[in-house]
Amino acid sequence: MSSVAEADRLSGGAAAQAVDPVQPRRTAALLAHPPPALRHGIKLGTAVAAAIWIADASNLSWGLTIWVTVMLVMQPNAGASITKGLTRTAGSVAAALVSIAIYGLFASSRPCISPALPESLR
Predict the structure, then answer these.
(1) Cβ-based neighbours of 76, under 8 Å, separated by 6 or more
(2) How far apart are alpha carbons 107 and 111 in whole angstroms?
(3) Which letter does DSSP use for residue 111 in this model?
(4) Where are the domains of the chain?
């Protein structure tokens, strides 16, 4: 047996390598009605790209947190996104209140001050 015939036999023959005529219709149907995971991926990618653009255009030193927040908060449906955003906001407020309370407990001692501050502000 020749090497070409052997390779053809191992690969399943020429018929296995032919393009399925139904495949373009399947692809068109997939693009016409994409599954929810694909739709969410497209929305998430667009939102992250917009967040990166906004962070870059505003020249913020902490611009990284904008698109990370978008990725963490954005969910496949609007209700879950709103819930996640409100939960994240409540967590931030709670953390701020706890830090204020802890600072209040130790207010009699001198707080740790950065050496970069001028002597008059220390």
Answers:
(1) 36, 37, 40
(2) 7
(3) P
(4) 23-110
Distance CA 91, CA 97 (A): 10
How far apart are the C-alpha atoms of 96 and 4, rounded to whole Å?
A: 72
Residues 6+ apart with CB under 8 A from 113: 121, 122
pLDDT tens digits, one per residue of 29-81: 777 778 888 888 888 999 999 998 988 888 877 777 888 888 888 888 878 88
Structure token digits, residue 56: 């870059």
**pTM listed for this prediction:** 0.51
**What pLDDT sits at residue 20?**
62
Residue type, 37: A
Residue 42 CB partners (closer than 8 Å, separation 6+)? 34
